[in-house]
Design goal:
This protein has 10 helices and 2 strands; from the N terminus they run H-E-E-H-H-H-H-H-H-H-H-H. It is mainly alpha-helical and 284 residues long. The longest helix has 27 residues, at 66-92. Keywords: Cell membrane, Membrane, Transferase, Transmembrane, Transmembrane helix.
Amino acid sequence: MSEYFLLPLASLPFPNIDPVIVHIGPLAVHWYGVGYIVGILFAWWYAKRLVTDPRLWPDGKLPMKPEDLDDFIVWAAIGVVLGGRTGYVLFYDLKRYIAHPLDIFAVWQGGMSFHGGLLGVILAMTLFSLKRRIHTWTLFDVVSAGVPVGLGLVRVANFINSELWGRPSDVPWAIEFPNGGPFTRHPSQLYEALLEGLVLFLVLRFLTHSRLKLKTPRFVGGAFICGYGLSRIFVEFFREPDQQLGYLLGTSWLTMGMILSTPMVLAGIWAMVTAKPAPEPRAA
């Protein structure tokens, strides 16, 4: 009996959770879609809390109206979906979609790029802030602070879907995914959920509420971009590259995720280094 406890743990069982939460007639509600919806709604709710807390802003002057964020959520959702899908098509599987262009619209089959979604939201924020005469970087700071929660939820959904799994491994917590071949693998989706989701959210929460960095436009947004980029690059060493792309250099490193995340790290560092506290209003 004692020898049993000395045996290495080959793998953890995959929790065979149905990717579909519920069927409503011909409509199937997926965990993946719910992750996106809940993430967007949380970022909206959290941003409204930030812009109504005078302690977080220079001289207690609120940067925008909560109603502005009510209107922006529609812009954000469009930016995420269109940017995420366009980014996946261009960055990850362009040959397939050139051959089968109608598949571009089959978003229920999966295929969203965070980097493309980010660009879509940045464009939406820029246009919206100009339209409403809101400081663009301040809007970016406010929205960025709550985004990690959605990122974490979507990564958990990737795990439930048994997709984007990690490289073969014999670590005690390795998992044999049902469609990952006869290998035990890193649950890299959960690594990303932890780093891009929980850890990054707590870091940004510390910056906004303890260091009061919302008083320094573009610092929080820069921290988000840099933090995501670093987290993604780190996890890419444990994540299986996309099958249609493989490794872009050598046989075990440099993936498309690393390439797309490196400019994010540099841009985030630039934003934080060059950020300056907003000037306090002069007394009359």
